[in-house]
Write a structure and sequence with these properties.
151 residues, mainly alpha, two-stranded antiparallel ribbon, 2 strands, DUF6545 domain-containing protein
Length: 151
């Protein structure tokens, strides 16, 4: 589950407990980390751009990836582009795009496995990188985020 760590580190502001705090129960820690990652993804939804999701979906389908892997790629691209947009203080002109919160399984382990796959795609997928680059090329079509004062 090491791939989940980068997503967790990207959104420390929502951590329920300070990183490094020792908790003996592995199930508790896995549950907390999974919830914190999902909370961070939800906090970024205003920065998600439907054009990034569409681009990633088209590229993943064209690459012949299985449907489940396409969903992983789309989620990773949406998250990474949203994080970049937030860091630049730019919001897409489209309405908010919700993260894919459909069921990944019946338990927290399945959720953590899903997030580990998203983290791996976030780090290593050339489709995710291309989708984020496509979002960066659309920067002129974004609007300043009045919450950050960037513009």
């Amino acid at each position: 589950m090491r791939y989940g760590l980068p997503l967790y580190q990207l959104i420390p502001a929502i951590a329920l407990h300070a990183p490094g705090t020792s908790y003996g129960d592995l199930n508790y820690r896995l549950c907390r980390r999974t919830v914190e990652i999902w909370d961070g993804m939800l906090l970024l939804r205003a920065y998600r751009d439907s054009r990034v999701a569409e681009y990633a979906a088209r590229q993943a389908a064209a690459a012949g990836l299985p449907t489940d892997e396409q969903r992983v790629i789309v989620e990773a691209a949406g998250f990474k582009a949203a994080l970049h947009a937030k860091q630049r203080g730019r919001m897409p002109p489209q309405s908010e795009v919700e993260p894919d919160t459909s069921r990944r399984g019946d338990d927290i382990i399945s959720e953590a496995r899903w997030l580990a796959r998203v983290a791996k795609a976030y780090q290593a997928s050339p489709i995710v990188a291309a989708a984020v680059a496509s979002a960066d090329s659309l920067v002129d079509e974004t609007i300043p985020d009045s919450r950050t004062g960037a513009g």
